[in-house]
Amino acid sequence: MEKYILAIDQGTTSTRAILFDKDQNVVRVAQKEITNYFPHPGWVEQDANEIWLSTLSVIGQIFDGGQVTPQQVVSIGITNQRETTVVWDKESGLPIYHAIVWQSRQTSDIVNKFKEQGYEPLIKEKTGLVLDPYFSASKIKWIIDNVKGARENENLIFGTIDTFLLWKFTCGQVHATDVTNASRTLLFNIHTLNWDKDLLDLFEVPQRMLPEIKDTSGVFGYIDPRHFFNQTCPISSLVGDQQAALYGESCFEKSNVKNTYGTGGFILVNTGDEAIISKYGLLSTVAWKIGNEVKYALEGSIFVSGSLIQWLRDEMKFFTSASESEQLAGQVLDSGGVIVVPAFTGLGAPYWNDSCKGAIYGLTRGTSRAHIARASIEAMAYQSKDLIKVMEADLQEKIPYIKVDGGASVNKLLVQFQSDILEIPVIRPVLAETTALGAARLAGLAVGFYKKEDFKDEKSERYEPSMNPEEVERLYKRWQKAVEATLLF
Length: 489
Ligand code: ADP
Prior knowledge:
The chain contains 14 helices and 23 strands. The protein has 489 residues and is α+β, with helices and mostly antiparallel strands. The chain has a domain of 239 residues: Nucleotidyltransferase, domain 5. The strands form seven sheets. It has a seven-stranded mixed β-sheet with strand order 17-18-16-15-21-22-23, sandwiched between helices. β1 and β2 form a beta hairpin. α8 crosses α13 and α11 crosses α12. It is globular, with a radius of gyration of 22 Å. The protein starts with a strand and ends with a helix. Bound molecules: adenosine-5'-diphosphate.
């Protein structure tokens, strides 16, 4: 009977279950969308119970039809949207408030107060992160301060989505997280690899609410048979989604980079054994811990990446599906001098300006929709170059090539332009499920189903730079000028 690893990929828009075989091939996939709630401008929430039920539902779908059975699953790995915060009562098992999603800005006031009090440098030094509502700490504080009776209730516990699912799967037996998820809370010291007492005091989060921190790959607990068709098996990895993609893309060595083009963009570079504190506003984070091996990463995010294509589709009505963007952009040889700076919600690293607005430059009477579509695709690549350059400066090393994934990475024009403008090769794996693969690999490693030597580069396509260096310099200078102008707007 063939054996499999089951990966759960609990993302912001959907929950997915993906079954991997011994050769790391995808055997089955199931997916269910998640509802987002926007109770006030800037607030984003989800129902943690819906997330839990969606997880059971996708697991059920995997075994529908009986071609594979739960007995064939040797282990489960969980990867998840990071930072999203759940506080629940360990007696009733019920969350006391919606899950506050990473995107939510409802805790800005808490964070601004700490900024005014000058806590930012200390927090950056300890956590590798910036003081921002994005991370979990202020979200936990907000829930405890705003839900009636919460501060006095000693039964309350906290978890990011990995922790909540693990607790549910084990029927409340295991309250734990892994270092990658802990490193996104703003309560975790990335040097000691433990919860930080000073930060807990600052955010007024009682230690008793926090999960135990474990390795990324290792047995966390066993799924209760009631949730797995009367079978059990170990849950042997918990890992944040971007770190999972780094592992799934085999970025095991220092200077290995993966770039995910999704709704937003996430670039991570492996910095080896060292947690580098960025001079340019990049985040320092734990990439994984497996036994004695701890790897760190620098991370940069792009607020608007594939969502620029969505905007062209939904608001500008340029096309009816994102994939048509490539066809339209392919009608012209270049952007005709048009530059799109998609600062819809300001610009992130390395600019950190949250008030500037987007702009389109270089319009002439001859500018067509094709030029604007092409310039939009190019904008994803230019923004990535801005981040790769500061990563090289922080690392003090040249990055030799990058690997790409995410929904927009199927766009060949984008990937070729990325290689041209970076002047290095860009490698795109044929398998799209790199995040789930990362979780499956880490889970399989823990139970001896996979060995580290099995984790070679997957089948991939390689794009080589083909633009002459003077042209690269000319184009990139124009992009930088356009960004400068945008920052003033
Ligand atoms: P997420 O995981 O953030 O939900 P995905 O990785 O599924 O996102 O990527 C979806 C994004 O990719 C969308 O914003 C969409 O506009 C963009 N996208 C999808 N296909 C293409 C394409 N062929 N060319 C450019 N962008 C695309």
